[in-house]
Amino acid sequence: MVVCVFGRMAGVIALGFGLVICGNAMAGDAVKGQKLFKRCKACHYVDREKHKTGPHLVAVIGRAAGSLDDYKYSKAMKASGLVWDEKTLAAYLKAPKKFVKGTKMAFAGLKKDMDIADIIAYLKAAN
Ligand code: HEC
Question: Whose CA is nearest to atom 27 of ligand 1?
Answer without folding.
Answer: 65
